[in-house]
Design brief:
The protein is an alpha+beta fold. It contains 5 helices and 9 strands.
């Protein structure tokens, strides 16, 4: 199974006044890994807070940073040709993830974090595989699509976590090639509270909880 992308979203307690300055600050602390021309939008303050106003990528397409007035998103898309386990792939990029959230939190109070891991398992019988793993209903040859969505909440150190799993039969496009298989998204996020602003320690705990889902034993149980 491959880890084909990871997204770490930080949701601001208050509106971010200068996404462009924060983008430069994060890029500087990350060693200027974002080396393309940024896109900066100068929009009125009353536009929806979710619209990215500052966007920048790396030339190799691995890293992307999107900042709106309400959130900061780091997206990491490793090369599809990388032959590493999901856990090893996350470990490779964890130093970048740590610098990203610590730098962001020095400038912006954070109320919520979401970590999405997208995994891919090649399979020419992807619909059948999901039926047999997740559904009591018996697979039929005319079954063409299937999606399974679950969310299990837990309480950890006073913080409520959502553990969302979305499993889907899909075809992904990589370059000029199509790959048939099972796409699994593991979305770990906390339920925000008006009384709680996240600390670096809390964020580290949530990331560790999310990363534990990439252990070989946990991945093996997914499909």
């Amino acid at each position: 199974m491959k880890l084909i992308s990871m997204q770490i979203a930080l949701f601001a307690q208050d509106l971010i006044s200068r996404p462009d300055l924060l983008m430069n600050e994060i890029n500087d602390k990350l060693g200027n890994i974002f080396d393309t021309m940024p896109t900066i939008l100068n929009l009125p303050a009353d536009v929806p807070a979710e619209i990215p106003l500052a966007q920048i990528r790396s030339k190799d397409g691995v890293y992307a940073l999107n900042i709106s007035r309400g959130r900061i998103d780091l997206i990491i898309t490793p090369s599809f040709q990388e032959d590493k386990t999901p856990q090893d792939m996350f470990k490779q990029y964890k130093p970048i993830v740590d610098k990203y959230y610590k730098t962001s939190m020095k400038s912006v109070p954070i109320k919520r974090i979401g970590i999405i891991f997208t995994l891919f398992e090649p399979s020419n019988t992807n619909v059948q595989v999901i039926y047999e793993k997740y559904l009591k209903e018996k697979y039929r040859s005319d079954s063409m699509e299937v999606t399974v969505h679950t969310n299990n909440q837990i309480l950890n150190l006073g913080v409520v976590y959502n553990n969302i799993r979305n499993v889907q039969a899909a075809v992904i496009h990589v370059g000029k090639e199509d790959h048939t298989g099972v796409v699994i998204q593991l979305d770990t996020n906390n339920v925000p509270s008006k009384e709680v602003t996240l600390t670096s320690e809390m964020v580290a705990n949530i990331i560790s909880h999310a990363a534990a889902k990439l252990k070989p034993s946990a991945v093996k149980e997914l499909i």
